[in-house]
Design goal:
With 64 residues, this protein is of the alpha+beta class. The chain is 25% helix and 33% strand. It has helices spanning 2-13, 59-62, and strands at residues 19-23, 28-32, 38-42, 46-48, 56-58. The strands form two sheets. Strands 1-2-3 form a three-stranded antiparallel β-sheet. The chain has a two-stranded antiparallel ribbon with strand order 4-5. The chain is flat, with a radius of gyration of 12 Å. It starts with a helix and ends with a helix.
Amino acid sequence: ASEIYDREKLCLENGGQEFWVVDPDRHQVKVSTPDGRTVTYQSGQEIPLPLFGNAKLAVDAIFD
């Protein structure tokens, strides 16, 4: 867990727009942004993709 936290911090502090942690066991995705916002999306939800206009990605599509 601490390794993931360190990688997240490194990426977001060096220009990354988002950092995703994909958990295949729980079928969820945690999305963090440089402004400190973190949202966890679960099966049945869609992840907004602001870097790609109004696009969205279904969490379930990641695990199919």
